[in-house]
UniProtKB/TrEMBL annotation:
Similarity section: Belongs to the FlgI family.
Classification of source organism: Bacteria, Pseudomonadati, Pseudomonadota, Alphaproteobacteria, Rhodospirillales
Presence of the UniProt keyword Signal in the record: yes
Listed GO CC annotations: bacterial-type flagellum basal body, distal rod, P ring; outer membrane-bounded periplasmic space
Protein's name in the database: Flagellar P-ring protein
Species in which this protein is naturally found: Rhodovibrio salinarum
Length: 376
Protein backbone atom coordinates (compact mmCIF):
# COMPACT_ATOMS: atom_id res chain seq x y z
CA UNK A 1 0.00 0.00 0.00
CA UNK A 2 1.58 3.33 -1.03
CA UNK A 3 2.43 5.75 1.75
CA UNK A 4 0.49 9.01 1.87
CA UNK A 5 2.37 12.27 1.40
CA UNK A 6 2.31 14.89 4.14
CA UNK A 7 -0.31 17.18 2.45
CA UNK A 8 -2.61 14.22 1.73
CA UNK A 9 -2.10 12.97 5.29
CA UNK A 10 -3.14 16.35 6.70
CA UNK A 11 -6.34 16.19 4.61
CA UNK A 12 -6.93 12.69 5.94
CA UNK A 13 -6.56 13.95 9.49
CA UNK A 14 -9.16 16.66 8.88
CA UNK A 15 -11.57 14.14 7.35
CA UNK A 16 -11.02 11.73 10.23
CA UNK A 17 -11.67 14.46 12.75
CA UNK A 18 -14.95 15.24 10.99
CA UNK A 19 -15.97 11.56 10.98
CA UNK A 20 -15.14 11.18 14.66
CA UNK A 21 -17.08 14.34 15.39
CA UNK A 22 -20.14 12.88 13.67
CA UNK A 23 -19.63 9.56 15.40
CA UNK A 24 -19.57 11.20 18.83
CA UNK A 25 -22.36 13.70 18.16
CA UNK A 26 -24.38 14.51 21.19
CA UNK A 27 -21.53 13.95 23.60
CA UNK A 28 -21.36 16.49 26.38
CA UNK A 29 -17.57 16.91 26.34
CA UNK A 30 -14.70 15.70 24.21
CA UNK A 31 -11.00 15.29 24.88
CA UNK A 32 -8.09 14.51 22.63
CA UNK A 33 -6.59 11.05 22.80
CA UNK A 34 -3.37 12.86 23.71
CA UNK A 35 -4.97 14.14 26.94
CA UNK A 36 -6.48 10.87 28.18
CA UNK A 37 -3.74 8.39 27.25
CA UNK A 38 0.00 7.99 27.34
CA UNK A 39 2.33 5.82 25.28
CA UNK A 40 3.57 2.76 27.14
CA UNK A 41 7.25 3.13 27.94
CA UNK A 42 7.30 6.92 27.62
CA UNK A 43 7.59 7.99 31.25
CA UNK A 44 9.82 9.74 33.76
CA UNK A 45 12.37 7.92 35.91
CA UNK A 46 13.14 8.98 39.46
CA UNK A 47 16.71 9.68 40.59
CA UNK A 48 18.07 10.06 44.11
CA UNK A 49 21.42 10.92 45.66
CA UNK A 50 23.11 11.84 48.94
CA UNK A 51 25.26 14.96 49.12
CA UNK A 52 26.60 17.83 51.17
CA UNK A 53 25.63 21.50 51.14
CA UNK A 54 28.40 23.89 52.22
CA UNK A 55 28.62 27.62 52.77
CA UNK A 56 25.82 27.91 55.34
CA UNK A 57 25.95 30.80 57.77
CA UNK A 58 26.05 28.75 60.98
CA UNK A 59 22.71 27.07 60.19
CA UNK A 60 24.10 23.67 59.24
CA UNK A 61 24.08 20.31 61.00
CA UNK A 62 25.40 19.83 64.51
CA UNK A 63 28.17 17.29 63.90
CA UNK A 64 27.73 15.80 67.37
CA UNK A 65 24.05 15.03 66.66
CA UNK A 66 24.52 14.10 62.98
CA UNK A 67 27.27 11.46 62.77
CA UNK A 68 26.55 10.77 59.09
CA UNK A 69 27.37 14.41 58.30
CA UNK A 70 30.67 14.14 60.18
CA UNK A 71 31.67 10.92 58.37
CA UNK A 72 30.67 12.38 54.99
CA UNK A 73 32.73 15.50 55.66
CA UNK A 74 35.78 13.48 56.69
CA UNK A 75 35.46 11.22 53.66
CA UNK A 76 35.16 14.18 51.29
CA UNK A 77 38.23 15.86 52.75
CA UNK A 78 40.25 12.65 52.52
CA UNK A 79 39.38 12.31 48.83
CA UNK A 80 40.72 15.85 48.39
CA UNK A 81 43.95 14.97 50.18
CA UNK A 82 43.11 16.44 53.60
CA UNK A 83 43.47 14.19 56.65
CA UNK A 84 40.79 15.29 59.11
CA UNK A 85 40.18 11.96 60.84
CA UNK A 86 42.00 12.94 64.03
CA UNK A 87 40.71 16.50 64.13
CA UNK A 88 37.93 17.80 66.36
CA UNK A 89 35.49 19.17 63.78
CA UNK A 90 33.18 21.89 65.05
CA UNK A 91 31.91 23.47 61.83
CA UNK A 92 28.23 24.36 61.53
CA UNK A 93 28.39 25.51 57.91
CA UNK A 94 27.71 22.13 56.30
CA UNK A 95 24.56 20.01 56.02
CA UNK A 96 23.79 16.51 54.74
CA UNK A 97 20.99 16.50 52.17
CA UNK A 98 19.01 14.16 49.95
CA UNK A 99 18.90 15.18 46.30
CA UNK A 100 16.00 14.03 44.10
CA UNK A 101 15.13 14.58 40.45
CA UNK A 102 12.92 13.24 37.65
CA UNK A 103 14.65 12.08 34.48
CA UNK A 104 12.28 12.89 31.57
CA UNK A 105 11.97 10.42 28.69
CA UNK A 106 14.29 10.82 25.70
CA UNK A 107 16.63 13.13 27.62
CA UNK A 108 20.05 13.16 25.93
CA UNK A 109 23.50 13.13 27.48
CA UNK A 110 24.71 16.61 28.38
CA UNK A 111 21.25 18.15 28.88
CA UNK A 112 20.24 19.57 32.25
CA UNK A 113 17.35 18.91 34.64
CA UNK A 114 16.11 20.52 37.87
CA UNK A 115 16.85 18.93 41.24
CA UNK A 116 15.30 19.21 44.70
CA UNK A 117 17.44 19.38 47.84
CA UNK A 118 16.14 18.46 51.32
CA UNK A 119 17.98 18.55 54.63
CA UNK A 120 18.67 15.22 56.31
CA UNK A 121 20.11 16.29 59.67
CA UNK A 122 19.66 19.07 62.20
CA UNK A 123 20.29 22.01 59.85
CA UNK A 124 18.05 25.01 60.45
CA UNK A 125 18.32 26.49 56.96
CA UNK A 126 19.93 25.82 53.58
CA UNK A 127 19.83 29.49 52.61
CA UNK A 128 23.02 30.56 50.87
CA UNK A 129 24.40 27.02 50.59
CA UNK A 130 26.01 25.30 47.62
CA UNK A 131 25.53 21.64 46.80
CA UNK A 132 28.76 19.79 46.11
CA UNK A 133 29.08 17.21 43.32
CA UNK A 134 26.39 14.59 43.96
CA UNK A 135 25.83 11.49 41.77
CA UNK A 136 22.13 10.74 41.16
CA UNK A 137 21.24 7.05 40.97
CA UNK A 138 18.37 5.26 39.28
CA UNK A 139 16.45 2.24 40.54
CA UNK A 140 19.08 -0.01 38.96
CA UNK A 141 21.90 1.59 40.96
CA UNK A 142 23.51 3.25 37.93
CA UNK A 143 24.51 6.92 37.88
CA UNK A 144 22.35 8.83 35.40
CA UNK A 145 23.13 12.43 36.37
CA UNK A 146 25.47 14.55 38.49
CA UNK A 147 24.15 17.53 40.46
CA UNK A 148 25.94 20.61 41.78
CA UNK A 149 25.20 24.29 42.29
CA UNK A 150 23.76 26.97 44.60
CA UNK A 151 20.54 26.06 46.38
CA UNK A 152 17.54 28.34 45.92
CA UNK A 153 15.49 28.46 49.14
CA UNK A 154 12.16 30.29 49.23
CA UNK A 155 11.66 30.10 53.01
CA UNK A 156 13.68 31.69 55.77
CA UNK A 157 14.11 31.58 59.52
CA UNK A 158 15.05 34.51 61.75
CA UNK A 159 14.76 35.27 65.42
CA UNK A 160 16.39 35.88 68.74
CA UNK A 161 16.21 34.70 72.32
CA UNK A 162 12.54 35.54 72.82
CA UNK A 163 11.00 35.14 69.38
CA UNK A 164 11.57 33.34 66.10
CA UNK A 165 9.89 33.78 62.74
CA UNK A 166 9.83 31.00 60.14
CA UNK A 167 8.38 31.45 56.65
CA UNK A 168 8.00 28.51 54.31
CA UNK A 169 10.41 25.59 54.61
CA UNK A 170 14.00 26.84 54.86
CA UNK A 171 15.41 23.30 55.00
CA UNK A 172 14.39 22.45 51.42
CA UNK A 173 15.18 24.10 48.10
CA UNK A 174 15.73 23.61 44.39
CA UNK A 175 18.57 24.00 41.91
CA UNK A 176 17.24 24.95 38.45
CA UNK A 177 19.17 23.06 35.77
CA UNK A 178 21.32 21.76 38.59
CA UNK A 179 22.08 18.30 37.20
CA UNK A 180 23.80 17.19 34.00
CA UNK A 181 22.66 13.96 32.34
CA UNK A 182 25.50 11.45 32.09
CA UNK A 183 23.60 8.35 30.92
CA UNK A 184 20.68 7.94 28.51
CA UNK A 185 17.81 5.46 28.71
CA UNK A 186 17.66 3.60 25.42
CA UNK A 187 14.11 3.46 24.01
CA UNK A 188 13.58 3.41 20.24
CA UNK A 189 9.98 4.56 19.90
CA UNK A 190 10.19 5.27 16.17
CA UNK A 191 11.11 1.68 15.29
CA UNK A 192 8.24 -0.03 17.13
CA UNK A 193 5.76 -2.02 15.05
CA UNK A 194 3.24 -2.23 17.89
CA UNK A 195 2.36 0.58 20.28
CA UNK A 196 0.30 0.39 23.46
CA UNK A 197 -1.69 3.37 24.71
CA UNK A 198 -2.42 3.47 28.44
CA UNK A 199 -5.57 5.23 29.64
CA UNK A 200 -4.98 7.54 32.59
CA UNK A 201 -8.50 6.70 33.85
CA UNK A 202 -9.13 3.04 32.91
CA UNK A 203 -12.59 2.41 31.50
CA UNK A 204 -13.89 -0.25 29.09
CA UNK A 205 -16.14 2.11 27.15
CA UNK A 206 -13.45 4.75 26.77
CA UNK A 207 -10.89 2.17 25.61
CA UNK A 208 -13.28 0.88 22.96
CA UNK A 209 -14.04 4.41 21.76
CA UNK A 210 -10.32 5.15 21.43
CA UNK A 211 -9.78 1.99 19.37
CA UNK A 212 -12.81 2.76 17.15
CA UNK A 213 -11.65 6.32 16.51
CA UNK A 214 -8.16 5.13 15.52
CA UNK A 215 -9.58 2.46 13.20
CA UNK A 216 -11.83 5.01 11.49
CA UNK A 217 -8.85 7.29 11.01
CA UNK A 218 -6.42 4.74 9.52
CA UNK A 219 -9.15 2.95 7.55
CA UNK A 220 -8.35 -0.52 8.85
CA UNK A 221 -8.66 -2.51 12.12
CA UNK A 222 -5.24 -1.55 13.43
CA UNK A 223 -6.31 -0.79 17.02
CA UNK A 224 -7.98 -2.96 19.62
CA UNK A 225 -8.74 -2.57 23.31
CA UNK A 226 -6.94 -5.23 25.34
CA UNK A 227 -8.39 -4.24 28.72
CA UNK A 228 -9.92 -1.14 30.38
CA UNK A 229 -6.49 0.52 30.56
CA UNK A 230 -4.72 -0.55 27.34
CA UNK A 231 -5.29 0.00 23.62
CA UNK A 232 -2.99 -1.80 21.19
CA UNK A 233 -2.08 -0.22 17.85
CA UNK A 234 -0.42 -2.23 15.09
CA UNK A 235 1.40 0.26 12.89
CA UNK A 236 -0.29 0.14 9.43
CA UNK A 237 1.71 -0.20 6.22
CA UNK A 238 1.29 3.42 5.17
CA UNK A 239 3.00 4.41 8.46
CA UNK A 240 5.72 1.76 8.33
CA UNK A 241 8.89 3.20 9.82
CA UNK A 242 7.06 6.33 10.94
CA UNK A 243 5.54 5.39 14.29
CA UNK A 244 6.11 8.95 15.49
CA UNK A 245 3.99 10.28 12.62
CA UNK A 246 1.21 7.83 13.45
CA UNK A 247 1.13 8.83 17.10
CA UNK A 248 1.23 12.52 16.16
CA UNK A 249 -1.85 12.13 13.97
CA UNK A 250 -3.72 9.79 16.32
CA UNK A 251 -3.27 11.87 19.49
CA UNK A 252 -5.28 14.75 17.97
CA UNK A 253 -8.45 12.65 17.49
CA UNK A 254 -11.32 13.77 19.78
CA UNK A 255 -12.89 11.25 22.15
CA UNK A 256 -15.80 11.43 24.59
CA UNK A 257 -14.44 9.72 27.73
CA UNK A 258 -16.94 7.75 29.75
CA UNK A 259 -16.88 7.69 33.52
CA UNK A 260 -18.43 5.67 36.30
CA UNK A 261 -20.94 7.23 38.64
CA UNK A 262 -18.89 8.08 41.71
CA UNK A 263 -19.15 10.31 44.76
CA UNK A 264 -15.82 11.25 46.34
CA UNK A 265 -15.96 12.41 49.97
CA UNK A 266 -13.15 13.91 52.03
CA UNK A 267 -14.56 13.80 55.54
CA UNK A 268 -11.61 15.62 57.08
CA UNK A 269 -12.29 18.79 55.07
CA UNK A 270 -15.97 18.30 54.23
CA UNK A 271 -15.34 18.33 50.46
CA UNK A 272 -17.82 16.42 48.27
CA UNK A 273 -17.30 15.81 44.53
CA UNK A 274 -20.02 14.09 42.51
CA UNK A 275 -19.78 12.94 38.90
CA UNK A 276 -22.34 13.90 36.30
CA UNK A 277 -23.66 10.31 36.03
CA UNK A 278 -24.75 10.09 39.66
CA UNK A 279 -28.45 9.21 39.87
CA UNK A 280 -30.87 8.87 42.78
CA UNK A 281 -33.86 6.54 42.99
CA UNK A 282 -37.07 7.77 44.59
CA UNK A 283 -36.27 8.62 48.19
CA UNK A 284 -37.59 10.92 50.94
CA UNK A 285 -35.11 12.97 52.95
CA UNK A 286 -35.60 14.80 56.23
CA UNK A 287 -32.80 16.55 58.03
CA UNK A 288 -32.94 18.20 61.43
CA UNK A 289 -30.84 18.60 64.52
CA UNK A 290 -31.83 19.11 68.12
CA UNK A 291 -30.03 22.17 69.47
CA UNK A 292 -29.97 22.95 73.21
CA UNK A 293 -28.43 26.28 74.16
CA UNK A 294 -27.70 26.96 77.85
CA UNK A 295 -26.73 30.52 78.81
CA UNK A 296 -25.48 31.45 82.28
CA UNK A 297 -25.94 35.11 83.36
CA UNK A 298 -25.29 35.20 87.12
CA UNK A 299 -26.39 38.31 89.04
CA UNK A 300 -25.04 39.82 92.25
CA UNK A 301 -27.57 40.43 95.08
CA UNK A 302 -26.47 42.67 97.92
CA UNK A 303 -28.25 44.48 100.80
CA UNK A 304 -29.25 48.11 100.46
CA UNK A 305 -27.09 50.97 101.76
CA UNK A 306 -26.87 51.38 105.55
CA UNK A 307 -28.63 48.05 106.09
CA UNK A 308 -28.14 46.63 109.58
CA UNK A 309 -27.79 43.08 108.31
CA UNK A 310 -27.50 41.24 105.02
CA UNK A 311 -24.95 39.50 102.88
CA UNK A 312 -23.86 39.86 99.31
CA UNK A 313 -24.74 36.76 97.27
CA UNK A 314 -24.25 35.67 93.66
CA UNK A 315 -27.62 34.52 92.33
CA UNK A 316 -27.44 32.14 89.33
CA UNK A 317 -29.57 32.90 86.26
CA UNK A 318 -29.81 30.11 83.69
CA UNK A 319 -31.56 30.44 80.34
CA UNK A 320 -32.28 27.23 78.42
CA UNK A 321 -33.35 27.34 74.75
CA UNK A 322 -34.35 24.27 72.74
CA UNK A 323 -34.44 24.42 68.95
CA UNK A 324 -35.93 21.30 67.40
CA UNK A 325 -35.85 22.84 63.89
CA UNK A 326 -39.54 22.17 63.41
CA UNK A 327 -39.58 24.31 60.28
CA UNK A 328 -37.47 21.78 58.38
CA UNK A 329 -39.57 19.69 56.04
CA UNK A 330 -39.18 16.32 54.40
CA UNK A 331 -38.24 16.47 50.73
CA UNK A 332 -38.99 13.77 48.19
CA UNK A 333 -36.48 13.23 45.37
CA UNK A 334 -38.03 11.41 42.38
CA UNK A 335 -36.30 8.59 40.57
CA UNK A 336 -33.48 9.44 38.18
CA UNK A 337 -32.78 12.94 39.45
CA UNK A 338 -29.63 14.55 38.09
CA UNK A 339 -26.68 15.86 40.01
CA UNK A 340 -27.98 19.42 39.77
CA UNK A 341 -31.41 18.40 41.06
CA UNK A 342 -29.82 16.51 43.96
CA UNK A 343 -27.72 19.52 44.95
CA UNK A 344 -30.70 21.86 44.63
CA UNK A 345 -32.85 19.58 46.76
CA UNK A 346 -30.29 19.29 49.55
CA UNK A 347 -29.62 23.03 49.47
CA UNK A 348 -33.37 23.65 49.80
CA UNK A 349 -33.26 21.75 53.07
CA UNK A 350 -30.46 24.00 54.30
CA UNK A 351 -28.03 21.09 54.43
CA UNK A 352 -24.36 21.91 54.95
CA UNK A 353 -21.42 19.83 53.70
CA UNK A 354 -21.05 17.85 56.93
CA UNK A 355 -24.73 16.87 57.03
CA UNK A 356 -24.69 16.20 53.29
CA UNK A 357 -22.00 13.56 53.81
CA UNK A 358 -24.19 11.75 56.34
CA UNK A 359 -27.21 12.01 54.02
CA UNK A 360 -25.29 10.53 51.08
CA UNK A 361 -24.15 7.61 53.22
CA UNK A 362 -27.74 7.07 54.35
CA UNK A 363 -29.06 7.19 50.77
CA UNK A 364 -26.41 4.66 49.74
CA UNK A 365 -27.34 2.40 52.64
CA UNK A 366 -30.97 2.59 51.53
CA UNK A 367 -29.97 1.41 48.06
CA UNK A 368 -31.22 4.60 46.41
CA UNK A 369 -27.85 6.06 45.39
CA UNK A 370 -26.82 4.61 42.02
CA UNK A 371 -23.15 5.46 42.37
CA UNK A 372 -19.97 4.38 44.10
CA UNK A 373 -18.91 6.27 47.22
CA UNK A 374 -15.18 6.72 47.75
CA UNK A 375 -14.05 8.16 51.08
CA UNK A 376 -10.60 9.76 51.09
Amino acid sequence: MPRLSRPIRCVAVVCALALVGLWSAGASAQSRIKDITQVEGVRDNVLVGYGLVVGLNGSGDDLDDSPFTRESLIGMLQRLGVNARSQDLETENIAAVMVTADLPPFTRRGSRIDVSVSSLGTAESLLGGTLLVTPLLGADGEVYAVAQGPVNVSGFSAGGAAQQVVKGVPTAGRIPNGAIIEREIDFQLGSLSTVHLQLRNPDLTTARRVASAINQFVGEPAASSLDPATVRIDVPENYAGDTIGLLTDVEQLPISPDQVAKVVIDESSGVIVMGSNVRISTVAIAQGNLTIRVTETPQVSQPGPFAQQGQTEVVPRTDVEIDEEEDNKMAVLPAGVTLQQLVDGLNALGVGPRDMIAILHAIKAAGALQAEIEVL
